[in-house]
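ingest -> validate -> predict -> emit
validate: passed (alphabet ok, no gaps, 284 aa)
predict: started
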Amino acid sequence: RHARDWVLRLGNFPVTRALQAFVAAPQATDHVLVDPLPRWQDPANVLDQIVAADPAAVCAALNGHALTGAPPAWMAAFAAAEAAVVARPPPAAGEGGHLQAVLGALPDHCPVFVGNSLLIRELDAFSGSGAGTIEFFANRGASGIDGNVSTALGIAAGRGRVVALLGDLTCQHDLGGLAAAAGLDALIVVFNNGGGAIFAHLPQAGLPEFEQGWLTPQSIDFAAAAQTFGLAYRAANTPDATATAVAAALQAGGPSLLELRLDRRAGLAERQAWAQAMAGLDLA
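emit:
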């Protein structure tokens, strides 16, 4: 309903699918990329022009011209749609409510590593906005669940602190990486939803072999794992308890593991109801 006349992109193609689809939709008359590096940045095959230049220099040059803004109603409509969505609370039983609880408890300029699969998608959907600044890191080039704990601890070593948001299978896959946590200010937050919960959002959820072949639930004891590698351990199962536990872990400092025990089926049902409610909003 709010088609754009042109797109000016600086640097990489967007990571999230929703923004990719919006940027790559065919309504725009001009799609311009500004990138000083000689690399291919048009996976959607939508570019009309490539400006091989420093983005800051291009923006400074544009500011020297008389620019025509979009109609005020265009941006106002986007702001109204955003406000309508933000006003609806995220699913408290699933990842969304806990993600907002974690982000709300973080100090300014906190480095946050986000694991792949479901969590990074739910972060995209439910992270919201705030006055503070958060630095996000992710292994998007490699994807997969290899080495996520180790990557997060490398960030802690370089930045002085990290909060890592990981699924239970992702954490288990690199459990040995916790051995590097000693002496680091690192909070590992494990969203334990009973396996590969992302596949419950996909068509294979209806297959008879779904649980064994796709969900692959595990029975790892994260409290014992934390004790094995010398991390403090906490657990939570509601967003309020999550916010309290995150604040306590950050105040205490040092390496710690927070296990969020989520009900996958309840979270999925609430997530689906939330999506239906969003589809029913009048965002014209």
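The first helix runs from residue 17 to 24.
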